[in-house]
Amino acid sequence: MARNIEIKAVVADPAALHRRAVALATDGPYVLEQHDTFFECSRGRLKLRRIDDGTAELIFYRRPDATGPKTCEYERSPVADPEALADVLAQAWGVRGEVRKTRTLYFVERARIHLDQVERLGDFMELEVVLGADESIAQGEREAERLMAALGIADSDLLEGAYIDRLSGKADPGTRA
């Protein structure tokens, strides 16, 4: 499985965060409309992502529900007929819920900064540092922490879980949303 180090944070001032992301970015911004359908899954999270450019992919991932930098293992597979696949997965596993968002994507070398405007939730930032096959988790965590500081993300801004958890009411009530 591929791996990355991730953080998720609530964003109080999206315009300021966009300015900081632009200053750091080596590529972007790219604006994407994403519609994620999450399916029941006992060993992680399984979602079908449909993007406004007509592409789609099935994504399975596992990561701890914790604040701060965390390791995420994931697999992605392109999907040619997302509507048919959504129907089959819904019948087989059941739908957990849907997340719709406008994502502004910036690249900082191998890291991805996602500035997300999530329907019914608000503004968030996700940071992903992609790890090489032989790269240590500690290296990725250090890079994530450096980027967090450069973006002005405080520990108190960090969230655990996924957007779907917040929408389905399963997020830790002690975390900010």
Explain this structure to me?
The chain is an alpha+beta fold. It has one domain: Hypothetical Protein Pfu-838710-001. It is 24% helix and 43% strand. It has four helices and eight strands; from the N terminus they run βαββββαβββαα. Strands 1-5-4-3-2-6-7-8 form an eight-stranded antiparallel β-barrel. The chain is globular, with a radius of gyration of 16 Å. The two termini are 30 Å apart. Mean pLDDT is 94; it is low at 172-177.
Concise overview:
This protein has 177 residues and is α+β, with helices and mostly antiparallel strands.
Radius of gyration, CA atoms, in whole angstroms:
16 Å
Mean pLDDT: 94
Largest β sheet strand count, sense and barrel closure: 8 strands, antiparallel, barrel
Quantity of strands, as a count: 8
Under CATH, the topology can be stated as Hypothetical Protein Pfu-838710-001
What would CATH call the architecture? Beta Barrel
Please give the count of helices.
4
What separation lies between the terminal Cα atoms?
Answer: 30 Å
Principal-axis shape equals globular
Our count of domains comes out at 1
- Enumerate the strands of the largest sheet in spatial order, edge to edge or round the barrel: 1-5-4-3-2-6-7-8
List the helices and strands and how they pair.
Blueprint: E1 2-10, H1 14-24, E2 27-39, E3 45-51, E4 56-62, E5 70-78, H2 82-93, E6 95-108, E7 111-118, E8 122-130, H3 137-151, H4 163-167
Antiparallel strand pairs: 1-5, 1-8, 2-3, 2-6, 3-4, 4-5, 6-7, 7-8
Which terms would index this structure?
177 residues, alpha+beta, Hypothetical Protein Pfu-838710-001, eight-stranded antiparallel barrel, 4 helices, 8 strands, 24% helix, 43% strand, globular, Adenylate cyclase, class 2, CYTH-like_dom_sf, Adenylyl_cyclase_CyaB
